[in-house]
Amino acid sequence: NQRNHHETEFLQAVEEIVQSLEGVFEKHPEYMEAGILERIIEPERLIAFRVPWVDEAGQVQVNRGYRVQFSSAIGPYKGGLRFHPTVNTSIIKFLGFEQIFKNALTGQPIGGGKGGSDFDPKGKSDLEIMRFCQSFMSELSRHIGPDTDVPAGDIGVGAREIGYLYGQYKKIRGTVEPGVLTGKSLSFGGSLARKEATGFGLVYFMQEMLQDNGLDFTDKTVTVSGSGNVSIYAMEKAVEFGARVVACSDSNGYIYDKNGIDIELVKKIKEVERGRISEYVEKYPDAEYVADGNVWEVPCEIALPSATQNEIDEETAQTLIKNGVIAVGEGANMPSSLEAINQFQESNVLFAPAKAANAGGVAVSALEMAQNSSRVAWSFEKVDGKLQDIMKDIYQNSIQAANEYGEPGNLVAGANIAGFLKVADAMVEQGVI
Ligand code: NDP
């Protein structure tokens, strides 16, 4: 695609979808006639803007902000904000594109969007984070709203950042609209179980897939990459299901604890102290910290990549297979390259793709929007129960779509097809817009 030739991650995401859809276009020529593919790969709107702010030293800093409003076919644009130095148009477009199909899979009425900035929150003071968030929202506020576009968190954006962003939105608009952002704190409209939703949802999905193949988490050795929001709650639920989680990481290295990771300590280091995972071994000297190491060197039966895109390439996939991996569940977005996915599938490793497996976060975000609209707050059990049902449905719908289109057991194809069909039908009915 010449128009986007420099956007490698975006093209990778499109290629994966297109590969899955051949059978769909054969069976549904009406999608071809309606130009669905040509339209769906072009965002409805891509916004880029200047984000100036003043650091603690009094220096002016300038970052670039983005929001891609990819598809509103089935609901308001919905998708997180990522603050990380690697953020660029390609990253935001790949994430926004994936989000369209993921959101459709949840069964909730939400379209696809994504945003963020090349701002690096690492090492910044609380004041600097607040100033940056306020400047970012000063521009973003004109493009979003509870019925238009509803951002949430992603890498580098958690409850603290959402709080500052929401405060600034409210000040600019002069009205209280909690439904404009999700992932809020509980005291101003957040939902119970949102924090846990992506990680828990990933493990619920994996449990479904394992059980369908006569397996489960009990006594399995699990490794997880990252130690952020998704990783922490994936580890917690995997342990609750009887697994032994032995390794996790951050961008500087990984820890290996053969006795099982102390998840409460990881929470304290990462969520409370905002420290580095290397600090883990100060309390557990028997555990190992490998600086600059690749967590996927650690043998495991179940791998849950939950850090970032393309962290598993072909060679890493081969290492995992050689070490006896039986199942891989993507907590991060697009953590496996196309070649890595091929390796897993050829070796009959059970593979749960991100679009389906990590959809729990956005699903509960949609439940947060529903609670905000009706000014109610549901119990943890109620939200968690709905999350479990949603993840089961996503699994079943993906498996069914895979069977129906001649790809039995292939969840990559199944998730892509099931998500696509819903959006494509809405686009056909709404005409060429
Ligand atoms: P967090 O910022 O909470 O955590 C990210 C973790 O991954 C950190 O441990 C971070 O290490 C590590 N990491 C980030 N970038 C890199 C990199 N380039 N190389 C190595 N390690 C890296 O983010 P989340 O947990 O929210 O997100 C993780 C993944 O899950 C992302 O792909 C995100 O898009 C996806 N996701 C998140 C959802 C959510 O609800 N939060 C929903 C669906 C998907 P360090 O601390 O050193 O930066």
TrEMBL record:
Q: Which domain of life is it from?
A: Bacteria
Q: Which stretches are annotated as coiled coil?
A: none
Keyword annotations for this protein, in alphabetical order, are:
Oxidoreductase
Instruction: Cite the InterPro entries for this sequence.
Output: Aminoacid_DH-like_N_sf, Glu/Leu/Phe/Val/Trp_DH, Glu/Leu/Phe/Val/Trp_DH_C, Glu/Leu/Phe/Val/Trp_DH_dimer, Glu_DH, Glu_Leu_Phe_Val_DH, NAD(P)-bd_dom_sf, NAD_bind_Glu_DH
Q: How does it assemble?
A: Homohexamer.
All copies of domain Glutamate/phenylalanine/leucine/valine/L-tryptophan dehydrogenase C-terminal, residue ranges: 191-431
Origin organism of this chain? Oceanobacillus locisalsi
What family does the Swiss-Prot or TrEMBL record give for this protein? Belongs to the Glu/Leu/Phe/Val dehydrogenases family.
Keyword Transit peptide (UniProt): no
Q: What is this protein called?
A: Glutamate dehydrogenase
Q: Which Gene3D superfamilies match?
A: Glutamate Dehydrogenase, chain A, domain 3 (1.10.285.10), Leucine Dehydrogenase, chain A, domain 1 (3.40.50.10860), NAD(P)-binding Rossmann-like Domain (3.40.50.720)
GO molecular function (one): glutamate dehydrogenase (NADP+) activity
Which SUPFAM superfamilies would you find in this protein's record?
Answer: Aminoacid dehydrogenase-like, N-terminal domain, NAD(P)-binding Rossmann-fold domains
Q: Which CDD domains has this protein been placed in?
A: NAD_bind_2_Glu_DH
Name any one Pfam family assigned in the record.
ELFV_dehydrog_N
